[in-house]
């Protein structure tokens, strides 16, 4: 992630296509790193947390994405404002915002992504494997006990006999491509993957094309009336405002309520309100073009309920409901389905949001549905998300083993059943 963030800003080429090709190459490998970080972060947190507060801990990990989105907007504001302030000619002549000076802006913004990754690198490298993986998959109960003692600062007594009894149990040896997995968790994986796929169609299309939506309601001036640097500044300002008012609060509402009202309810109500607000924005869209402030408020609410809803829970649920040996794999599959939805949303909205009148659409693009009907389509997509939520179980208050069916013979005890006593020491032994 560090290397590819820096390399993205150093993308090279004699022509625009060459630069874009090398940029795509580095962004692919950046995605490879992020694609590994998603399931690892969720799984590590779920397997070290106790069942009473597990949802809040996993959601808190994901809620940092909100601060990342906010920081990204602020970085865009600062960099574009600095270049705009230094080169006043940008205000007078649009052509002066073209390369070479404007070329620095996007490069600096992309390279800044290496900073948070570098800040956490040392601690991430020192983080041990989860006890469940070490005990159940690597079959090293002693090492698992040492790791748990290191992370939780307590002493554990590994019970080798229980470990041996568990790992020999045939019912727990099934793989991903087996009838046993299909029977136990097939619908669960379909639910988590499809919900994440549908959510990201909506979530990423809204994030990537805020400029198009804000221009359609006349909150932002047409691109022809701004220099490229001014456009970056105005879009960053709008995105920062949306993140501050809707995105970040939504994440932390989830952290606050997820272990009280449950993941399933939060996801269902999130999809429901996303559906309602998409229809409310899309159907009377021409009305909102003359009432910008109410539109922005309602548009912010779609982000609020996305994050106090499926954008957070689709990250949490796959880390809880699958067995230890397949937990990160199933989470990775679900996250990959989400990114497939992001691709559909990015390309779909790019073309669908074009004006249906050929004289009004952007140069080089065929006529589309327009922003109004695109929002209505996103409303239906959120509605389908509600339907597929019914395939996902509610993990609130249950141990990971109970959810995955790994303790059917009571041969192991769940880590999350270990609770601190008044002196802070754990009153149970490490599960084998």
Automatic annotation (TrEMBL):
Residues 1-397 form the Major facilitator superfamily (MFS) profile domain. SUPFAM superfamilies: MFS general substrate transporter (SSF103473). GO terms for molecular function: symporter activity. One of its GO terms (biological process) is phosphate ion transport. Signal peptide: none annotated. The chain crosses the membrane at residues 28-45, 57-84, 104-123, 240-258, 270-289, 295-317, 329-351, 371-392. CDD domains: MFS_PhT. It catalyses: phosphate(in) + H(+)(in) = phosphate(out) + H(+)(out). It comes from the Eukaryota. Residues 403-418 have a biased composition (Acidic residues). Residues 399-432 are annotated as: Disordered. It is found in: Membrane. Pfam families: Sugar_tr. Keywords: Membrane, Phosphate transport, Symport, Transmembrane, Transmembrane helix, Transport. It is a multi-pass membrane protein. InterPro entries: MFS_dom, MFS_sugar_transport-like, MFS_trans_sf. Its main location: membrane. One of its GO terms (cellular component) is membrane. Belongs to the major facilitator superfamily. Phosphate:H(+) symporter (TC 2.A.1.9) family. This is Major facilitator superfamily (MFS) profile domain-containing protein. It comes from Rhododendron simsii. The lineage of its organism: Eukaryota, Viridiplantae, Streptophyta, Embryophyta, Tracheophyta.
